[in-house]
Amino acid sequence: DGSTWLHTVCCAFRHNHAGAGRNPELRTLFYRLASFLNIPVHAIFVFDGPSRPHVKRNKQVRAIPHWLATIFQEMLAVFGFAKYEAPGEAEAELATLTRHGIIDAVLTTDIDAIVFGATCVIRYPEPPGHFDRVGVYTDHVIASAAGMSHEDLVLIAILSGGNYDVSSIPHCGIKIARGVSQYKLGQVLIRAFSTKSQREFVDFCHDWRKDLRRVLTTDLEGYLGRVYPAVANSITDSFPDCDILQKYIHPITTFSSHSGTQDVATTMTSQGGSGYHTRSLQPSLKMLASFCKNHFGWDGDAAMAKMRATVWEGAELRLLCGVSMSCRFEQSNR
């Protein structure tokens, strides 16, 4: 999620910016990309697009592009990494790419992408660059170990509050929502939302809310550990919000029929990616050196030393991987 990277580095330098040197945010992004260059992965950076939600976590989302976005995308191109702008939220786009088998995993600072249906999420390592210290979450493991499906996760989000509705049902936290999800009300709700007309879904929700209140006031299977009549009484007749369900279940992505974009292969190719073949390009060392000179003031022997320490190993790795892939292709066609 390229947009998250931008916001993260800017928050890190909110204080003491003057003492952090020249272009500290961009320099931090450079070192992060250099660490990616040193591992054998094809990284695709996806950015939030014009149809992303206008409000998240009760905060207005800025409609104008991030001030670092253009120069960061220029740096991505010099490094040889694929990039493109999603029609909506980058997280939803990346989750959809995993479901279609175009990418293997979503690398992110949290696991919100799982709620969008991502099949595999890797949490960004702390400290950054230590890729042997990552948490990996797959839909299969979550289903088998925790007994939670994608529908259960969506239900937990709308009950306890998520990006689109932080309050949701008053006093219904994650623990209560998790217990409710074990009654499999999420599967029933999402199946109805996906198959019924709007009028039919409104009628369905009348009975579904009765079931939800009954679960909270009786807890017949003991999943909650106790009853929560106050929470049940706080459920309004407008719950659940159809707009919020739509954002979780059918978010706007390149695959959406109403997204107003072409297919994902064309989008990735036209914006710097490589279609369904998510191949990275060899970094341009000459252009990287020029970029660093212009934006960081690195020049002469000092620039050579920094490039040797950060970029050369990764560039060689990419070159060797390219030769290896080429040899395999030639052998398979003999």
TrEMBL record:
KW Nuclease (keyword) present: yes
The XPG-I domain covers which part of the protein?
A: 77-148
Q: Which GO terms describe its biological process?
A: DNA repair
Determine if Nuclease is one of this entry's keywords.
yes
- InterPro entries in the record: 5-3_exonuclease_C_sf (IPR036279), PIN-like_dom_sf (IPR029060), XPG-I_dom (IPR006086), XPG/Rad2 (IPR006084), XPG_DNA_repair_N (IPR006085), Yen1_H3TH (IPR037316)
Please list the GO terms describing molecular function. Answer: 5'-flap endonuclease activity; crossover junction DNA endonuclease activity
Give a Pfam family name.
Answer: XPG_N
Q: What keywords does the record list, in alphabetical order?
A: Hydrolase, Nuclease
**What's the protein here called?**
PIN domain-like protein
